[in-house]
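To assess whether the prediction recovers the assembly geometry, we first specified each molecular entity separately, as shown.
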Amino acid sequence: MRHLLDTKTLDRESALRILDVAEDMSDTQSREVKKLPTLRGKTVVNLFFEDSTRTRISFEAAAKRLSADVINFAAKGSSVSKGESLKDTAQTLQAMGADAVVIRHSASGAPRTLATSGWISAGVVNAGDGTHEHPTQALLDAYTIRKRRFGADSRGRDLAGVCVVIVGDVLHSRVARSNVWLLSTLGAEVTLVSAPTLVPQNVSQWPVRVLYSLDEALAEGPDAVMMLRIQLERMSAAYFPSEREYSRTWGLDAVRAATLPGDSIVMHPGPMNRGLEISSEAADSPRSTVLEQVTNGVSVRMAVLYLLLAGERNDERGRDL
Amino acid sequence: MSARTVLQQADISRALTRIAHEILETNRGADDLVLLGIPTRGVALADRLGALIASIAQTDVPVGSLDVTLFRDDLAKNPTRSPQPTEIPPGGIDGKTVVLVDDVLFSGRSIRAALDAIQSIGRPATVRLAILVDRGHRELPIRPDFVGKNIPSARTERVNVRLSENDGVDEVTIGA
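The predicted structure of the complete assembly is given in tokenized form:
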């Protein structure tokens, strides 16, 4: 694996390999000594042009648990605010000897540009680009669903027949896009539920079903309900009349959560707007996997960094992921 | 080039039975013994040794597996390896006599990695090494405590251990 740029082009075999390696990584995290010597001497740069808490910390923890050196770069307070281009920033990192670059950028496609431009030789991991994709989030979501469903015999299994409902601001959500591609590659049936104004125009080409009523979707007893964050920072137009109305129509409150079958899970990629898309009762209930998702995120990112950096470069037919 | 069979099914089971007796003799019984197989074939061998020791000593011996992939020093020189599951028996390994079990001992680098892996899990009282085939060419100061068979080999030759659990047949072959 050279890069991890999206889940749309990730095949089933590669996706399962990442999830299976993540199982092994997760096992090592219950040991007395959690640090592994695996990536000693490698340097991972977290290149974050957009704000993030959990993704950056999660990548940092993952790299450190594998003994890689981590350099954190945030656009705020860096030369980017003086007008430095992506190319110059990238080449500076290359000159410092980065082996992998974890990039988050507000422009869709920035990670691909970095990976294919020839500016740098490091492996590139997309940590969220614009409204395009956030592949490691989708991988950790798939991992969480698989772990809750199959427990200790998760290894090697896909998500055939699992029904997942993704609710909320699909239009602006890279998490939703990455999940749609990955979950359907793994055999899950994906239903999107949203206000008509928050559904992307090209959704008819996605392997999904679209519903506009949350109650209708919940009545079918889905295995997992994934609530998306209402991205107030990207709400440039009036997509819905008011937050209260959104919450009443598409929010997951205690009453709605209680209608789900006993083993259904409630997921949220975080950060949550409590009281808007998800109520505190639903977010803190035993069926909520919000904190498991964070824990699993570290294992999944360890797996991605391991597969990217551990073997000889240009291995596995030089395949681009 | 055709491969030559150096151990057949009966030879393998005889060697394992002898190793089981030797382990019990060295340990003065089955107390505090933990067998850890190194994937892939070491796990099957550890299971067999565990069963043999249990039938000789009339007491169960904890058997687990120990993956060493993440502790190897040659990761960057090979295509990416997938790690295998590690299963430590419920009693843990602290204060126990851990016997590492592997199929072939060659450079000794897997065993070095295994010693590091053990350190991250706990602190055994003793670590010993049981090997089905010792083919020589050590690159590190590591030696086995229990050996099924010493097979002198050229560095370029391939020693293949096949076990019925993994490959449907029990045999050890050597070839170019």
